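Question: what's this shape?

___
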Amino acid sequence: MKFDPQHRLCIEGHEFIRTPQHPGGLVPKGTYDSLKNRNRIEVLERGGNGRTVLIVYESLPPAYKEMITAHFGNPYEYASRQPLLELVVKDTRAEKFFLEYRYGTDKCLSPAQVEKYVTAASWLNMLIRMQDDKRFVRQQLGITMEHFWKLIPELTAARSVALPQSYKRLSERIKSYRQEGYAALIDWRFGNRNSAKIKDELSESMLLELIAHPNQHDDTIIAAAYNRWAAAHGYAAITAATVGLHRRSNNYQLQLFREGNAAWYNRYGRHIKRFRPSAPLLLVGSDDNDIDLYFRNETTGKGNQLSVQYYHRFRAVVISDAFNDYPLGFFYADNLSVHVVKMAYLDAMYHIRELTGGWYLPHQLQTDRWNQKALLPFYQRIDPGYFAAAAKAPRSKYIERTFGTRWHQHLRRFPNYAGNNITSGFRLNPEHVERSKRLYPHKDDSCQILESFIDGLRRDPQPRTGMTRQEVWKAAFNASELAREKEISEEQFLFLFGILHDYSNTITNGGIRLTIDGNVHEYEIPEQYLRFAGKKIQAYYDPYNFSRILVTDGQQLRFIAHSYEKLPAARADYQADDQEKLFRQLHRKKAYIDTILRNKKNRESILEQHQLDAAGLLQARVMVKEIRQAAEASWASSGNPATPFDPLDLM
């Protein structure tokens, strides 16, 4: 408080208005603003440029005058001490020291803490000057030293100055401040170990290791364990509050051991921010998720006893495009397996073809490390540069965002919604769950429900554009050459995503016969592969479409075989074009023979041009004329031409 030039008593803004910088104020800033705007108070200075707000005391409503008296005592007596308060000058060197002060691993003091220490240092500077110049107190202030030391606790308490209230402790603080300077004001929480109970490497190491134990013991248990060790080694005892303070201030280095890598990574791991892919299919991710929908699962046990499980949930693998979190495909089952993962990718390929008209591969895959031994070859056939995401680092995978708020907003549309997972803050009303369980759909009806759920995600309108997520994806795909870069053929599709049949088969003149899940499928052999009849092969089939298979022997043979088209035996069963199909097949069959005969005639013509007789070579004791001529020439050149040549002499 101070008097204005007209000798009116004024209360300063920091004494009356409570702000984060001045928490000792009497009323919130909103209350002050309301009084000022309604002209209930007279304000002389409005602050700024280093000035403080001044409020005329007599202009305050009675309730606020009583509040000031209750806090400061008689305000006129309090203001009479103003000459003493004017001796307190802000120490800018102290401010520089505390702003630059660092402790621990490059930690700094908060602005409020800096102000607290600067204010204390400014008051201590004044007290040291008065202590060294007692004549000034008597002559300039007109009070005795005894009265001076009585006034100090009242003034510091009213202004929330962080100094002791007793003369003895205040004298000790002045003494330590003279010796150590500004550092004497910093308490042990911020690096000053002089008064700390945990003051050296040994005691700190013991306490932090107790806190770091993976059993995550309670602070009271840790304090008791530490105190047993401290008593035996001459250290001071500590409280649970001290343990809590060290646990919180060192959490960045203790959480790794208390809660594990995942918890530490999610809180302290550096987050590398990235742009989303610029076009569809540049980055596609997959992950499994427990679908939060309940289904009834009815089973029959011994004695035809019906057993009902009301809370059955499916496990799904979802394929999502990071371009706009668009769900390309999914597949679900009771439990996660390699087959479920592959079927989810197959479903995604069919949906891509539905949207684009062709088979297109993603440029890059992003998955977790589940069953990498079995799935790594599959992933690397799709993306040769594939590598799994970091373990226990969900933040690194875009697909994790797919299972967030929007995912559960669509799940809530269904009456059998199961709520968020057990670690979430959201819970369903357990009484409602119990009442509704008999109305849950049967698990056999899950296909339509889950397809409706995924379709809802795909057709979810975007707030800014009004376009559905699917429309955004298609428009971006059509506009990007890069997105269309990895188109593949039908043969590639079957090789990459087809299911390898469990058993080898044999190519026969009747084609290829496969038994899949108890159903027989027959396939025709293309003409050019007749020469492989009788060969052992394996087949890749598409469980979504059995009309064609990829046939291979694992080496040089690979072709697509289509379903065998049978024709009716009775003319009465003929359809419109069955007669034409029959003649076409008979003609093809005759064409096979014609091709074989034509090839034989070509071979005989070639041998005749070279005067060779293949049949003559196979006849006993009969020589082909070319061989005879060569033998006669050899006999004549041997120097014995008078002797008749007898081919039997060569035998």
Notes: The radius of gyration is 46 Å. Residues 284-479 form a domain with the Nucleotidyltransferase; domain 5 fold (CATH 3.30.420.10).
